[in-house]
User: What shape does this take?
Amino acid sequence: MQNVRDGSATMADLADEVRILRQDLEVLRTIIDESPDVIVLKDHEGNFLLGNRLVADLYGTTPEQMVGKHDGDFSATPEQAEFFRQNVLAIMASGETEIVLEDSTDERTGETRHFKSIKKPFIGPQGKPNILVIAHDVTDIRRSQVQIEISERRLRYVLDATGDGIWDWHIPSGRLVNSDRWIEMLGYAAGDLTGSLEDFITCLHPDDADEVMEAVSGALATTGGYRHEHRMRCKDGQVIWVLDRGSVVEFDEAGNPVRMVGSIADITERKKAEDELAAIAYIDQLTGLPNRRFLQERLQHVLSRGLRLGSFSGLFYIDLDHFKVLNDTQGHVVGDRMLQQFGGRLRGCVRDMDTVARFGGDEFAVLVEGLGETADQAMMAAVAIANKINAICEEPFDLSSIRHRITASVGITLMESEDASAEEVLMRADIAMYAAKSAGRHAARFFDPEIQAALSSRLAVESELRDALLAGGIRPAYQGIVDACGQLVGVEALARWWHPTRGVIMPADFIGVSEQTGQILDIGRAMLRAACEQLAQWSRNPQTATLTIAVNVSARQFGEPDFVDEVLAVIAETGAPRERLKLELNESMLLHDIDDAIAKMTHLDDEGIAILLDDFGTGYSSLSYLQRLPLAGLKIDRSFVDGINHSAGDAAIVRTILALASNLGLSVVAEGVETTAQHEFLREHGCQMFQGYLFSRPGPIEGLQYA
Assistant: This one.
């Protein structure tokens, strides 16, 4: 009875397993039949073991009727059937999966379908090779590809017909694809290009490159487009004008631009036509210079740009003095020749980038950008240009029948920002020009009374300074330098202008002018010679024979190629003991050409002349160059000394400088020592020499206390 029960239980379990298996088969059949792919299982003879509904529909049968049959049983010719069978056998024999593209004809509609088939051989349950075929219908994809190809050919034809060169820029990779027309337009062959943005940049005209890339960057920043006219260079060097348009067409998930497309159109002929029209509208026909209209527009453009940040520009309004007399007495032909020649000379007074225009009659104007970053610099640059304008009048003008000299009245107005319209600026320059005429003609005047006053003062200083140099009015005042015991060891020669009526003029009131005019060289030579003469005189007195004199050297003077030779020549002429001469250099002047500086300093050092680094700590201090320089000592700037008793930072800097100098074996002079507390701090931290009002004030050599 128990065996029966066990047997009954086994049969029931088997029935459940069969039922579950059937359910799984039904699910599998449903999945296979609903698949969008053709699914076929064949035996080693190529007969169907399984086929889903899609393949059955293609053969015009049912999945059940396909089992056990061959391709030849479904309207295939014997040749086709044999080909199919051999193909199956070959795949089975190779044992490798094959992926192929195949065509098949729908038996119901006669339509050709395209499939991508995966054929995978495997060993079946009976140990014989079978093959599984899964084919994906790619008919619609193929049709889409064909349509895309047709559309691309049509688009390419249309684009080529327009004459525009098309470009496609993939921004992350930098890949740039240019159309055949783009390549042809610039005279290149496809093999000449790199396929990167560098192709585009290389073809840009150098004068337009910055503006173009700025336009592109602006379009990327705003995720929009740009439209720009600019020049491009062809492979053969020819320059063409193009209308360049671009637009962002693709973005990533974060909204960043990914692709930009655009075109270039050759507009060279249009530009030539515009230039011809501009020659009529903007060029003075007599002189060939731009006319008043052109200069007004150019001036407004400069003003609308806000000029150059931190830079002055200037407008010069020029009127030829007594031109009407020449024109009335010699005739218009002679007058016209005068205007033509003056316009040509005026053009040579300024740079190519500046604008020279004829306003009509005998009036001209010059617009100059970038005169200087400060009002003083701009004023002096403007004066230099005005002097050039007056200079071109000195040589007689050859007017065929006569040779004629003429003078000019020049009005100048400076501009720093957009504080006026073009008409207002012109009015100011015009007013300044009439001020020059009122001053007696053959003169230049600024519109701004304050600038004019400053200029007059500057010119007066320059003139008086020139006279002072000739008369020996630039002489040193000497300030003592003492050692730790308060004993005088030397002096510094400080430039002073001994004016006959104004008394002693300090360097701050004339050194700046001398640097701009080049008179600083004469001042430096005068100071060097005076110091050497004093050393020679001291050398003959045992009480002063060991004293040294330190002389400041300007950057302009040190930069002269023959500076070392000049120093040695002065020493030789005066008989000064060279070991008692010290030259003080500012550390900032060494950075311009460090190798040249080292060469000059080494030469001086070899000759026994000591070099001190003045105002140490206020410029660009670098240990790397300090080690390379043949220095005898450092001078601590007075700004640090002044703060050592109440500024922890200044005190730390001074201690650091003293420690650094000690490690490098350099002597140290502290400048500007005015209190006992400063003196004591410096002594405690190893300073050896001191200079300042605590010990002596600068003055004539006669007032110097030697002991």
